[in-house]
Amino acid sequence: MADELIQDPKGGMPRLREIMRRLRDPDTGCPWDIEQDFGTIAPYTIEEAYEVADAIERGAFDELRDELGDLLLQAVFHAQIAEDRDLFDFDDVANGISDKMVARHPHVFGCESRDKSAEQQTRDWEAVKAAERAAKAQTGVLDGVAVGLPALLRAVKLQKRAARVGFDWPDAGHVIDKISEEAEELREAADDLGPDKVEEEFGDLLFVMANLARHMKVDPEQALRRANAKFTRRFERIEALLTARGKRPEESDLEEMDALWDQAKAEERA
C-alpha cells in the first residue's frame, strides 16, 4: 500500500509524508537524507522561505505553488527527523499550531465579539502571545525573539518589544538625528580604529536604520528587496547599452557607466 501511495499523483499530504519516511529509512533510504539533522536542514528552510517571498514579489504564481511545496517539504523533513528521534511527529506539529491559532482567535472560535478593529485585534494578539511567553517562564521583554531570524528582521522585532515598555524615541525625527550621530561615529572609526570597531559602528548604524523603518511603518526587508531589484534592473540596462556600443562593463569606466545609469533612471521615469 505504501508503494501505491507514493505513486499516487493525488496522494496529497499522506503521500509526501510517506516519501519522506522512505527517504529517511536507515536501511533503504537515501544516504544524503539519512545523514541530515535539524542543523544541516535549517539553511535550506530559510532559503525556501525567501524563494516563496521572491515568487510573491514577482507575481509568479505558478512558481509560488512550487516554492510553497519546497517550503512544505522542509516542515515535513524536520518533523520526520524529530519522529526518528522520538521527539514529536508531524501530527504533533499540526495539532500544536492548530491549538495556537484557536487560542489566539477567541473572536472567531470562542465567545469574544468580532466587532473590533484590526488595530485592536493586533493588541489582543500581542497580549495573548505575552501570556504564552509568561507560561514558558519567558519574563524578559526581549525573551522569545528568535536568534536565528535575519538580522534586520530581528532588529525590528527587538525594537518593537522595547517600544511596548516605553523604550523608544518619540518620533522619526529623533531617529534621523541618531542616524547622523551613528554615521559620524562610523566615519571616525573608519579613520582611526580597527576593523572590529568599524564593524560595531556599522552594525549600530544598521540597527538605527531598522528603527527608522519601524517608525515610518516601512518593512526594511521589503524595502531592501525593492532596492536590490531596482539596482539589478538598472545595471542590466547599463550592460545592454554597453553591448550596443560593442563593450562589456569591464571595458568601460565609472564615468561612462554612471552616465548610462542616469540614462536608465531617466528611461524608467519617462
TrEMBL record:
Its EC number is 3.6.1.9. GO terms for molecular function: nucleoside triphosphate diphosphatase activity. Coiled coil: none annotated. It holds the Pfam family MazG. Keywords: Hydrolase. Residues 246-270 are annotated as: Disordered. InterPro entries: MazG-like_dom, NTP-PPase_MazG-like_C, NTP-PPase_MazG-like_N, NTP_PyrPHydrolase_MazG. CDD domains: NTP-PPase_MazG_Cterm, NTP-PPase_MazG_Nterm. Residues 37-109, 177-235 form the NTP pyrophosphohydrolase MazG-like domain. It comes from the Bacteria. PANTHER family: NUCLEOSIDE TRIPHOSPHATE PYROPHOSPHOHYDROLASE. This is Nucleoside triphosphate pyrophosphohydrolase. The gene is mazG.
